[in-house]
Design brief:
Helices cover about 10% and strands about 30% of the residues. Strands 1, 2, 3, 4, 5, 6, 7, 8 and 9 form a 9-stranded antiparallel beta sheet that branches. The chain is α+β, with helices and mostly antiparallel strands. Pfam families: Pur_DNA_glyco. Belongs to the DNA glycosylase MPG family. InterPro entries: Formyl_transferase-like_C_sf (IPR011034), MPG (IPR003180), MPG_sf (IPR036995).
Amino acid sequence: MIATPDRTPLPREFFDRSVLDVAPDLLGRILVRTTPDGPIALRLTEVEAYDGENDPGSHAYRGRTARNDVMFGPPGHVYVYFTYGMWFCMNLVCGPEDKASAVLLRAGEIIEGAELARTRRLSARNDKELAKGPARLATALGVDRSLDGTDACTTEDTPLRMLSGTPVASDQVLNGPRTGVAGEGAVHPWRFWIANDPTVSPYRAHVPRRRRS
């Protein structure tokens, strides 16, 4: 746990950069989720970059839709999607407006509000597993599609805010292929994580889903 993280909100300019610059720079930053039940703060330990029309693995590869509209900007907003008919995943929009890109928040360490997170993640065997994976992270924080489009770069008391935290030294940042991405996008080493951090999720290659007979 970081003893004295910087609580200054990240400015919008932080996100108005290439997604490949923003993604590793998000490690060690703090996401605060404010709810009627209380706040939860999470230190990011694992992320993945998705580069819009330049990236076959991105939801925006084939253009703008109602689902991915938030990805087209402005930067610093939250993109939430629903997957496999049961899970939500959370992203932070990057780059210039109208150029879709986003960073998927894959894992983190709950540094405040663990008791509340435990009530949402009853299957977690310990606190290191509370947000170990993108669906688990969203579940622990109580994130769903109602938060799609939320501005995370503000000093106001909003449901989701990104704080400066403590950036991770470059020699502690590792990268490799993204988890579960198929096709041409599978080769991009755009998953970034903190070395030896116990909250980082295990890598899994894409496995095609078999049709039921």
